[in-house]
UniProtKB/TrEMBL annotation:
<dbReference type="InterPro" id="IPR004130">
    <property type="entry name" value="Gpn"/>
</dbReference>
<feature type="region of interest" description="Disordered">
    <location>
        <begin position="1"/>
        <end position="42"/>
    </location>
</feature>
<dbReference type="Pfam" id="PF03029">
    <property type="entry name" value="ATP_bind_1"/>
</dbReference>
<dbReference type="InterPro" id="IPR027417">
    <property type="entry name" value="P-loop_NTPase"/>
</dbReference>
<dbReference type="InterPro" id="IPR052705">
    <property type="entry name" value="Gliding_Motility_GTPase"/>
</dbReference>
<keyword id="KW-0547">Nucleotide-binding</keyword>
<keyword id="KW-0342">GTP-binding</keyword>
<comment type="similarity">
    <text>Belongs to the GPN-loop GTPase family.</text>
</comment>
<keyword id="KW-0378">Hydrolase</keyword>
<protein>
    <submittedName>
        <fullName>ATP/GTP-binding protein</fullName>
    </submittedName>
</protein>
Length: 233
């Protein structure tokens, strides 16, 4: 796993460009007169714990509306970055139709951070769920140690592309079935068969709205990644 100090390099950003980006961001902040200092003052700052000895970049993937933004927001110990935007009629011509209650969608990425056991910090990157954004995954997946693939039993077929893309990118992953109130219950064997999962791929049930449930899904992934790395060494 990457050390906490190396987390930026794990994301595929070199130190020089990182410094330049920080300078650009600082200049942009100074130029933004619309920013409210009071809003910034009210935002709590949570630094990485001094006990942390390792860090990992983790992708959270799945089709549109599966609960990626919700899961990251549920577990993140910092204020998550979310790029949710209102869905428009123009996008409806390109994206797969979702339920009427879904009125926003991620247009870039989600970002959050969670520390496990006081020693390992996970940097969570949620990918856009639309099919047209799959090419951008190569950049988001750079430096990722693994991925949590969320699926919805109400539309398992919608998850095929996401799982297949992880396999193409050779990113180790586990699967978490997000339990919606009206989800259809299936046996683990049936789910594995429908999703064409290898025997060693973890499969868990979670509720992206519940902190404990979502953390368990991430722990299952991390355990799988540790076992994979140990077997390969």
């Amino acid at each position: 796993m990457n050390s906490a100090k190396d987390v930026d390099s794990g994301g595929g950003v070199d130190s020089k460009s990182g410094v330049d980006d920080m300078k650009d961001d600082a200049d942009a902040d100074k130029a933004d007169d619309s920013a409210d200092p009071d809003d910034l003052a009210d935002t709590p700052v949570m630094y990485v714990q001094s006990s942390v000895s390792g860090a990992a970049k983790i992708l959270v993937v799945g089709p549109m509306g599966v609960g990626k933004t919700t899961l990251i927001g549920t577990v993140s110990e910092i204020k998550p970055l979310s790029t949710e935007a209102t869905m428009t009629k123009a996008g409806a011509r390109l994206d797969t139709a979702v339920r009427p209650s879904k009125i926003t969608t991620t247009v870039a990425l989600d970002f959050g951070r969670i520390t496990l056991g006081g020693e390992l910090v996970l940097y969570l990157f949620g990918t856009p769920g639309q099919q047209r954004f799959l090419p951008a995954w190569k950049d988001l997946a750079r430096g990722a140690l693994g991925a949590l693939a969320l699926v919805d039993t109400r539309d398992l077929e919608a998850s095929f592309d996401a799982i297949g893309h992880l396999e193409d990118l050779d990113v180790p992953f586990s699967v978490a079935v997000n339990a919606f109130p009206d989800s259809v219950l299936h046996s683990e064997d049936d789910l594995r068969s429908a999703l064409d999962l290898l025997p060693h791929t973890p499969l868990v049930i979670c509720d992206a709205r519940e902190h404990k449930s979502s953390v368990k899904a991430l722990i299952s992934l991390v355990t799988h990644l540790i076992e994979t790395i140990t077997e390969a060494s």
